[in-house]
Amino acid sequence: MRSTQPDPTTRERIRDAAVLRFARDGFGASVRSIATDAGVSPALVIHHFGSKDELHAECDEQVLAEIRATKNATIDEVASGQGILHRFAAADEYAPMLGYVLRSLQDGGPVGRTFIEQMIDDAVGYTKHGVEAGLIKPSRDETARSRYLVLSALGSLMLELTLNPPKDPSDISGMVRSFLETSYLPMIELYTQGVFTTRRMLDEYLLYVPDPPQEAPTEPSVD
After folding, report:
1. What is the pLDDT of residue 89?
2. Average pLDDT for residues 57-85, to the nearest whole number?
3. Which has the closest alpha carbon to 47: 6, 16, 14?
4. CA-to-CA distance for 164 and 89, rounded, in angstroms?
5. Which of the four, 5, 8, 30, 38, has the lowest number of CB atoms within 10 Å?
6. pLDDT higher at 156 or 216
7. CA separation (Å) from 138 to 120, 125, 146?
8. Would you say residue 145 has pLDDT above 90?
9. What percentage of the chain reaches a pLDDT higher than 70?
10. pLDDT digits (tens, 9 = 90+) for 166-181
């Protein structure tokens, strides 16, 4: 994880250590282990966050913010003609985020569900950014498309790790590299070129389904 400041504060150092520890060991990781990773006492962790649940919530916010920033930066780079190969080289840097997302999926429950729903809401935002940048084609139902893409990506990742579990579950970077090696080419090819050579199936389907709900127009403000 990258702290928001070049010289992270104690609070940021604890939060970043917690993200990595949660990604490696799950949300059952102890405050003591997080404190050890951050080089502080367990009492200082509680002093800054109040409880492990509050620390978990702040980690959620940070990981989601990192994902949003990375997605938007990638869209801007591609739309402006820049290369994105450096993103692959930085796989180790983003590994804790991916590991954290996986743990949220595995954990389930209200907190995990809320985290994934927030990922989907964020995806609607950066997909809209991509449409405005001319990089992504608009959809008849942007929310439904974003939900499908997020759940498809996370589902394929979960299946890959279930069918081919890593020898060392704590090796998050290794998991990320393995996933990228087998999945990135077909994923980018699918997004770029599509699958069907004709839109006949879509046209036929649209004859039998209602139009998706449209966003309500924004009412002008009254001073």
Report:
1. 57
2. 82
3. 14
4. 23
5. 5
6. 156
7. 17, 13, 11
8. yes
9. 85
10. 777 777 777 777 777 8
3-state per-residue secondary structure call for 84-107: CHHHHHCHHHHHHHHHHHHHHHHH
DSSP string, 14-45: HHHHHHHHHHHH-TT--HHHHHHHHTS-HHHH
Query: Looking at residue 215, what DSSP letter applies?
Result: P
In this predicted structure, the answer to whether residue 222 has a pLDDT above a threshold of 50 is no
Task: Identify the CATH assignment for 10-208 out of 3.40.50.720, 2.30.40.10, 3.40.30.10, 1.10.357.10.
Answer: 1.10.357.10
Count of Cβ atoms closer than 10 Å to residue 128 Cβ:
14
Query: Which whole-number Å values give the CA distances from 7 to 10, 11, 12, 16, 146, in the listed order?
Result: 10, 11, 9, 13, 35
Q: Can you tell me the distance from the alpha carbon of 90 to that of 11, in angstroms, rounded to the nearest whole number?
A: 25
